User: Fold this.
Amino acid sequence: MGVQRQRDPVASLFHALVVACALCWASSARCVEGQSQTGQLSVDASQQNTRKIPDKMFGIFFEEINHAGAGGLWAELVSNRGFEAGGPNTPSNIDPWLIIGDESSIIVGTDRTSCFERNPVALRMEILCDSKRTNACPSGGVGVYNPGYWGMNIEKGKVYKVRLHIRSSDAVSLTVSLTSSDGLQKLAAHTITGSKKSFAKWTKIEFHLKSSQNNTNSRLQLTTSKTGVIWLDQVSVIPLDTYMGHGFRKDLSLMLANLKPQFLKFPGGNYAMGNYLRNAFRWSETVGPWEERPGHFNDAWGYWTDDGLGFFEFLQLAEDLGASPVWVVNDGASLNEEVSTATVASLVKDVVNGIEFARGGPKTPWGSVRAAMGHPQPFKLDYVSIGNQECWMLYYRGNYQKFYSAIKAAYPDINIISSCDRSTISPSNPADLYDVHVYTSSSNMFSRTSMFDNTPRSTPKAIVSEYAVTGNDAGKGTLVAALAEAAFLIGLERNSDVVEMASCAPLFVNDNDRRWSPDAIVFNSWQHYGCPNYWMLHFFKDSSGAALHPTTIQISNYDQLVASAITWQNAKDKSTYLRVKVVNFGNRAVDLNISVSGMANGIKNSGSKQTVLTSSSPLDENSFQQPEKVVPVSSPLANVKQQMGVSVRPYSLSSFDLLLEASKHASI
Assistant:
């Protein structure tokens, strides 16, 4: 998320008006201002007036906020797997790990005896009881358990890969099991055994557990009934079945893939900066073997991250989604600190090294690290964003020029994104793109459909990398917020000659740790749903690289309608469609006459469809109880002609996809 977030002062007033209209609509009372009317939408589909939308127009922005990655998209089930979250001083807090057994049978703490130099903290269990009657352990043994991120979702028949490191002062008989939250229901178990000699030194153990039952609120247990001291470190449980086999939670990844994102911007936001630089995202500490990554405290959003979802994984996710990675680098600034331009050189070198990690050959110093991780071919990293809305900070412009010069010297083809606005860009302060963030009320967001109408038609172009409706009418993701954002995106389509890319924020929220609302996708350990603004994005997923046609709306005394038209091609069957999108942001139904001129090819008699996103109230939201309360509904579109009438419902987003005889305008 951006550094500064301002909410529009009229949000509360607009919210009251929306509620009043919603109540009127929901009760089926026909207010005077709710009567339907007619309008005219003209589409100029002539080749000479057609313009191509940028190939990477619509993408996604991922920030580690709301436990979006740790306990979310990254499929690791164990929270604080390396016992580092409590800090380097031991004994330390081991939260969320808890102890099985009382102090007469087991003493658990941490020490600095790990075999990993960058992760020195390990868990030490001193077992005082045994299997004998004199000091018998309780049934099932003693040990520790980890509930994961608000419960582990364990599914019947699924296989889970378990990895951990063990050292012991004596022979080992340690049972690793997946159980219900109270430990009474055993879903899968494996017992690790070995002599004192076998575990005298740190030993890595790997095995698979196959669950016999379903349980959405499970935990991992490590128990024993054998006296002695056992040390544990880097305890991991991850499903074998992940997206593309690369460690991403499959259901959440498919939600992203279905949007067909053309770029993935990462890792933040404030997460990239940190409240303090010591807690900023450091790319080099998030690559290499997962056990050797030190992890860090995400002080921007208040939780520990093991950095299993690191720089390599973000690049891999972009590749798996078919999206271009956009890396937001730390430029020496946090929310509370700055590195001066005179001393920023080491950070500049670090970023250039990071680009080498992504793009360098497998024999280069950092490219070899990537290759050792299983990806010898370079990633296609073409965009680097310098900082996160920091132009107002003292040293930003001086630091930016240092980063710009060094990156361009080594990689002249990389597109560099500035945090400063367009007015500051000049030959002496160059940029390929400039970053724009928009957080505002729904009424103001709707009005910003014309935000770029008067922008000079020259470079650099904008990347609107963060936009969202906030305030009272946004709720946890309302229909009216989604419609306002849709209108804004239509404005970006129309102005795609000066806007290159766009993505919403935030993308994910774990419902157990909601730090920001609204969000596009809500999830917990076993469920997920898309908010209305997630489903709204589906109306734009075919726009990147499509042909844009001029549109004109004529309607009397009603300024709540915006529209765009594109010609796009279905990648699967190569069918070509003319898509007309219409946002009705008001409470009047509109009988709209659509007139298309300049078409080189006709419309087929069948195969066209209309899709509508609406609900019974503009403040409706989706939820775990009603995950599809506000979702797009498609139906065949009959009597399709170059001039035709359609009905546009109040508070709705509609698309009319007209199947064409040929696809000459799919791209230009």
